[in-house]
Every structure is written in C-alpha cells, then in structure tokens.
Amino acid sequence: MKYKSILSLLLLIIFSAAAGFAQTGKIEGTVTDGASRPVAGAGVVLRNKATRRERNTTTNSDGEFSFEAVGLDAYEVIVNASGFANSTVDASAAGPALAIVLEPQPIKEQVTVTATRTQMLTSETAVPVSIVDREEIERKAVNNIGDVFRTLPGTSTVNEGAFQVRPRIRGLDSNRVLILVDGERLNNSRTATGQSGIETGLVETSQIETVEVVRGSGSVLYGTDALAGTINIITRDTPARRENGFRLGGVLDTFYSSNENGRRGNLAVNGSNKFFAFRLAQSLERFDNYFTGDPTPAFLDGLRDQGFAVADDGEALNSQSHGSNSSATLRFFLNDTNTIRANYDRRRASNIGSAGLAGEFAGYFPFSNRDKASLRYDVAGITKTFEHLSVSSFYQTQYRNFTNVLTVPGFYQFSETITDTQTSGFDVQTDWKLGTRNNLTVGSSYFRDANTDRRIVLQGSSPTSPNLRYNNSRSVPDATLSSIAAFAQNDFRVSDRLRLVGGIRVDKFDTISESTTGFTIPNLRPDQIDDLGINALASGLNVSNTSVTGDIGAIYKVTRNVNISARLGRSFRVPNIFELFFTGAGSVGGFVVGNPLLKPESGVNFDASVKAKTSRFAGSVTYFTNSYKNFLSTAEANDSRGCPVFIVRPGTVYDANNCNIISSPPGPAPVRVYQTQNIDRARIQGFEAELEAPFKISLGYLTPNGNFSYLRGDDTGADQPLNFISPLRTNLGVRWQNFGKAYFFDYNVRIVGEQKRLSNSFLTTPVNQGGNGGPEPGFVTHNVGGGYYFRRERFNFNVNLGVSNIFGRAYSEQFVFAPARGRSFTIGTTVEIK
Prior knowledge:
The relative contact order is 0.11. The strands form 7 sheets. This protein has a 22-stranded antiparallel β-barrel. By secondary structure, it is mainly beta. It has a domain at 2-102: Immunoglobulins (Immunoglobulin-like). It has 7 helices and 46 strands.
C-alpha cells in the first residue's frame, strides 16, 4: 500500500504538469484610478481558487486586460500597480467584464517570504521584518547594499568603502548574521568572524529587487549563522509570463556619487512569451578613494593616532574598489503551475582597499570574485492538500586574495593569502494545507563548503633585498564543512483571531580537515599541545556536531487593524573552518592556534510585538531579549595548570612549575599563543519601533516616518557591559509625493547616541592597545533627496537626486575603525522599455 500511495502522488504531480486550464471562456476587464483614468502597465494575476494555478498579464494603454481560454471554475483577479493599493476581485468566465478601480496607497502592503518560507504579510508574522524594495534602494542612492542597514530598526554596519560594508543586527555582526541570495546561502565557513564576515558587496546593487531583513533567530528555517537575524537579498527576475505573443524589453540604470567619484552602470535585456522568459544583465562600477567629513586637525590627529592613513584634505587612503557583474536568468513555463528557473551570476571585484590601511602596514584585496549557478523547479496546486513543491540546487565559488605589506626601517614583509571556497547545496520544500485551519511546511536542506588556501610570505630587509626569504606555509588546512538538515513549521489557526506557529529543525554537521602540505602546528611542548587539543590538527580531523532547535509563536488579531504576537525559540551557530583550524600569526599580534573542541554557540530568543496598520497609519513596537552561551572569542591560551602558553626558541628554560620563563637563547622574544574558545555568556535586550503616518494635503501625501532602536548588552559571565553595542539609534524623516506618484521629496535625520556603557577595561584601555579609550561618540547626520517618475504602458523613466551628510559632518560609525563618508551629491537614473 505504501508504494501505491507514492505512485499515486507521483502520478498527480505528473498530471499537474501536463494539465492546463479547461479552455472554454474568457475573463476580461478594465483598470482605472479614482479619477476614472486608465491605469496602463498594471500587473494582473488570474488565480484559480481551487487549484491555485496562476496566469499573468498587464493592462494596455487603455487599462484593458483579458485572459482567453478560461475554464468555468471560480477565480480571483489580483491587480497591482506602483503607487496604488492592490485590488482582489472574484471572477468567472460566465460573468460580465470587470471594472476594477485602484485607490492610491501611501502605505505599502508588504509581503515577506523570508520570515516564514511562504508568502505572508509582514503585519501577520511572529517576528519583526523590514523590507527594502527596488524603489527605496534607488531613492536611498546607496553605493553598496550594505548602506541600507544604517537606517533600519535594530541594524547598523561595520567597515567602510564601496564594497566592504557589512550589516550588524541587534549588536551582532559578521557570521552571526545569515545572508541569503534568493534564499540560498552567501555566507561561507572559511570567512573569519571578528568584525569580518561575508561582504554584501558580492551582490551588485543594480541586480537587487528587494532586501528582506528578519530580526531575531532564523535557525529553525535556515540553520547555522542565523543567530542574530537573516537577510535575504532577492535579485531581479525575468518578466512575467505573457499569454499572447513575445515581448522584448530592456533597462538601463546609472548611478553617480560625487564624494568618491563613484560610477555604476547596468544594462539589462529581457523578454517573455507563453513558454519562456529571460533576463541578461551586465554592469560596471568604479569607486575611487572617499573623503571624510570636514577634516579638522583634531579629527585627523585622532585618526592618525589609531594608525589610520588619511590625507590632510580628508581623503581616506586605500578605500577604492572596482567591479563588474554579469547575470543570466532563464525561466520555462511548463504550464500554469509548473516553472523551471535557471540562473548564472558572475561577480568580479578588484583593487578593493581596506580603508586607512596604507603606509607602514597596507592591506587590500587584489580581487574578490563570486560565481554562482542555480536551478529551481516549482509546482503549485498538486492536490487540494499538497499545495506547493519547490526543489532548488546551487553551486557557488568564492575566490579572493588578501594581501598585506609591512614596511618598516630594516624589515619588509609581503604576505598574500588566496582562499578558494566552493559551496554546493540543495533545498526541498513542501507546503501542505491540512483542513481549513492548518498549514504545514516541511523540507530538507544541505550545503557543503570545500576550502583550499594558498599562501606566500616574503621577508627581508627591504623590497629589493637580494636575500628575500620565501615561505608558503598555510594557516588553514584543506577542509570541508557540510550540513544536512530536516525542518518542519506548522501554522495552525485556532480561531479567526488566534494563530499558533511552531517549528523544529535537526542539523547534522561534519567538518573534516586533511593533512595539508605547508600546514603545521607551532613549536610547543607535547604537554601544551595535548592541553590545547591540537595534537591532530596537522594530520587531519573529523569534527561532528548535531543541533536540534525549535520555536513557538502566537499571533492574535486584536482588531481588524491591530495584531499582537510573541515568539520563543532557540538559535545556534556551529564553529566554522576558520575557528576550528586557523593556526598562524594573529592580525593584531601573537600567534593563534585552532581549537577542534569548540561547541556551537546557542541562544534562547524571545520577541513580543504590537503591529498596527490602516490606510493612514502603520506602526509597530517590539521588545526582545536574547540570551546566548558558548559565545566564541579569541583569548590568551593557558595549559591545564593555568600557565600561559608561549612559542619559544629551543633551549628555553622554565621554572619548576613550567609557568615562567627563566631564560631563552638569543633571538626573537617568546610569542604569546591565543586560541578561540567558548568563554562568553551574553544577554542582549532592547526595544524597536517603527512609524509611518501619511496625511493628505492639497497636492499629494505628506508622510512623517521614522524608527527607534534601543539596545542593552551584558556579558553575564563577567558581570560587565557587553562592548560593541550601539545603545540608541533614531531615524526620523518626512516624505512628500503627489497623488500620481510622479514627484517625491525625502528628508531624514539619523541620530546615534553616545555609548558610555562599556566594560571597565575596554573603556580605559587606549585604542592602540585594543581598548576604546573612553565612551564611543554619538553623531547626527542629515540627508535629502527627490525625484521624478514617468510611467507609461511600455516605457518608464525616473531620476533620483540626493545629498547625503548635508553638513559634511566628520564622524565614524560606532565601533568602526574607519571614518564615514563626508558630503556627497548623487544622481541615479532608470530607463525601462517593457
């Protein structure tokens, strides 16, 4: 019977792929605005209510649409157009022509797929979500998609420059934030953790349609690295399926920023008919060194005291980057419910500077490249119970070179490290409707990172020394990290007002290192090697971890416009290849050894929110508290007796307890050994709030908006404040747009409060010794922008103008080494033929 059931299911899937709409009638209509003017170019979706099969079209210049060969089932027609609220009406082939009127929508109805793995209104999720669409990306005039995280609630950034800006969520950065591209991992397990992580610059801004930011743990749905939150970068897709004929179109995007003479251009060509659609895109970009705000002598002296290389006119030396992106997407429409999507993306970035690392110590990336190929199959409406099946796979390579040069009198060192990380993965997701109240999502996912390093070190008295010493030792062995997981999430509607959401996930991780030429453990005593657990590092290791996590949440509809929600869940992050195996000179001194005994970081996360939305108001307030244990941190290494561990020269003499060094032969001084350890316990809690309240004036809508975030972090193990936490961040603005949404004006101010609440040692230790040297300063910046949108049935044009950091303030983002950009004038244009 088991095999008959499986065979029946397979036959249903096959029949669904072969079946289409019964061809008996037609559904047609007209779309107009409130003034009875036709709305051209509106998207129209015809959805079968029983099978959920969909067909797509757009309105012509007269606002008309039609669907031929429609069956006699019950349907709904969904109409969407920029600047208007979506409209959904019932329809049938036997009914009259539809007359659909769209109303202006000053507040957007936002839908997320990242927070739940299925389409859901953001107001109905149990977690806070922020969505930045293409229009907002253009209006913000960002150099890099990382820049958008400066103005979202609960988020901030680390690093500067046009390529290396990375997001923080709720005080955590780097690999503790999972970044997805079209639902597939961008993170890799070779990237270092401390204020590093994967660069969002690996996704070129012109290729992005939407960015979804989920604050709070995403471990149940996405696995490791989603400790603080999940960011899903959704790229621009092919045009919608056309019922009749073939249509060819194209888009030209341009961007210019005056501060760093930044230029970016992107040209895309697309087309679609009833059977397939495609999109081809090519972009080029070049950003020179950026300039800080007004460079007062005191500000420049402060930067130089920290070792930052900056010119007298405020030029941040070594902050440039160049790049290009090639993208090809092809989608096949097998019928109304079955699609196949194939994509290839090629990102090239070169001459990427590390802002301020110039002079005696210079660091830069000669290249950082990404290639990705992916394939996805979707089928909807398989049965009344089995609603949707999605199967996807991808292969990605991340290939980059980090080079640093140390030049001091009498000593020269050139170091080049090339990392080659290849990631393959797949994801299977099924969506089930069990009765009228229960929606179940079940799936499985897999990924495997395979990493190989190459390293060259040259040392001598000068770059031209005839006796340069050559060393090709490696700090990371050849290694792989793989994960296989199964997950399930259930959404149960208890009543018309109350929904319960719960999920569970099981992950099995295997991290395997190989015996690698050039990778060796340091010259330590055998007992020290045993105490540090590194005796098998050079010969190869297999480290396994299993993580089980889950969450449960509730969403209660207080009124038609107000929801309250709460969620409690676990999160985790497995140690990566770098943390387990890296053995080499530390970037800030000392010698770091691997630690294959590390445990996964884990957390218990609680969120509670109130969300309200009407046609004239949208707002939310969220309280959260997250408790973490086994946090990873690099600390001084000690042996089993508590004695400090040093790398010493042969012949070194210790005292009777083997702790203190009595004498050592002539030569370099002993080097302190460090190791990544599970040492920290932390709690981060806070509030987040958002508000948008448009009101009608004589010429259009005036919309005050803003958000507020407050964070408090505690190192609960040491009973000290947690460092690197920005406590108070406020973004306030006002936007005006006319009723036809052709013109707009934006003004916003960003206010970041001073952070005095730091640990005692971090507060009093000078910056050049690894501390902060005092409170972290706050700052205020102002930005303005405006633009014009011209829309027709087959032609769109828009231009966006802006001035960022209007008053040229000189400042740094909190806990960031490099200063921020000063005043910049920007202009962006888009020309689209549909």
